[in-house]
UniProtKB/TrEMBL annotation:
Occurrences of domain Aminoacyl-transfer RNA synthetases class-II family profile (ranges): 139-410
Gene: serS
Lineage: Bacteria, Bacillati, Actinomycetota, Actinomycetes, Propionibacteriales
Domain of life: Bacteria
Pfam families reported in the protein's UniProt record: Seryl_tRNA_N, tRNA-synt_2b
SUPFAM superfamilies reported in the protein's UniProt record: Class II aaRS and biotin synthetases, tRNA-binding arm
MF terms (GO), sorted A to Z: ligase activity
Localisation: Cytoplasm
Annotated catalysed reactions: tRNA(Ser) + L-serine + ATP = L-seryl-tRNA(Ser) + AMP + diphosphate + H(+); tRNA(Sec) + L-serine + ATP = L-seryl-tRNA(Sec) + AMP + diphosphate + H(+)
Name of the protein described by the UniProt record: Serine--tRNA ligase
Species assigned in the record: Nocardioides bigeumensis
Amino acid sequence: MTGVLDLRLIRDDPDLVKRAVEAKGIDLDVDALLALDAEVRRLKGSSEAAQAEKKRLSKEFGRADEETRARLREEIARIDAGLQKDKDDLAAKQAELDELMLLTPGIPWEGAPVGADESDNVVIKKVGEPPVFDFEPLDHITLLEQRGWAEFARARNVAGERAYALVGDAVLLERALLSYALDVLVTRDFTPISVPSLVREMALVGTGMFPKGREETYELPADNLFLAGTAEVALVGLHAGEILDKARLPIKYAGISPCFRREIGSASRDVRGLVRVHQFEKVEQFILCEADDAESERWHATLLDCAESLLQALGLAYEVVECATGDMGIGKFRMNDINTWFPSLHTFRETHSCSTLHDWQARRADLRYRDSDGTVKHVHTLNNTAIATPRLVAALVENHQNADGTVTVPEPLRPYLGGRAVL
RNA sequence: GGAGGCGUCGCCUAGUCCGGUUUAUGGCGCCCGCCUGCUAAGCGGGUUGAGGGUUAAACCUCUCGCGGGUUCAAAUCCCGCCGCCUCCGCCA
């Protein structure tokens, strides 16, 4: 792994980094980091000089006679005494520095609202009208149970809180949603890819999920693996350490994977139903592109548009939110959530999250490409949900329910459900 | 789970047994130049990455899957891990 934020950026413009730390509410002492960096460089200087001298003498040793060798051995031992101490100091300081570097934030774009949390998010767009019912609409839990489309109590007996089992048409509907989303992305030239959910720690550090999100992640200590909360983890890891040909960019993936989240921070919220669960399915949009702000901005707009198009085609009302600095997470440059209307909640709930990571994630995971001029650069990475189920199954049945308990199938999903217009 | 083999600078490859003129060989590709009616061929040079350093260079360190160890000295010897291949066992 190389630098996380470019160390040189921190040296050259510490105030910029401090502002980002402040805006994102991160607990990081930039001055302490810089002091550590200066110390590391000092120790590097002295230990490398000693190392160079040692190498030189060692070469001489090979050609020397016995007498000279004895002298060289002494001389080298003398160098070693000092060198070893410098090296130990260096290793310790470097480790400290690395740890701090993992906490350095990505610099948010200037358009992001500055604020501590999601209460400072700004709604920038509303699309579609929440449905008006001439009957008393049901929440998705009641609706699904009445129709025999879900088992909640029994599933919880098997698997604990937040567990669910979809049954019958709900399963078909879920699969229709996922298939439809994947197909739409394929027509938009995304490469469909199914990726591992079981991942190594390095992959989670590379995406930026770790160290902060550690307690949100399921761990399998017997195998030294973790359950990823999104396909993004594997998609970032896929090209880690590579130097890609510029001609290969942009890489556009439509990743599918089961996703796992412990939901530790959300104790008693949404404990019932399909809105917040430990295990779900997701089609994820993911982009690797050149390190060019205009280029990644275009892709950000594209990812947003893909998600919006899906929601529009599904006949769901939604709002797009410009996320505040304190809500977007440590690494992000820009984040737009899409919140979809849930009639039972009388409000919009997050169903999509579109993020530009700039080069922050690429630096962590070491995702690089060779530019036309031969220089090696870190790519920009972006991601957005396409469809996450069963949360969207819940939105769908709530929004499209009829008085008789049936659910109208949005036009584009019908081909995936044997042409049925109503479930 | 068991046995064996392998991992070298974009790709292929020499070097590993027997540690030291290895600043890692050669080819392909790529870049620059020369030459040539054009093209091809030919000739000369360059071409891993990271960090430090410098106005810029020079220069220095690290990098032969990753991490340790032995040694004055490690691609080369030892240990652990990861990955790939072959075979056996098991298995959706």
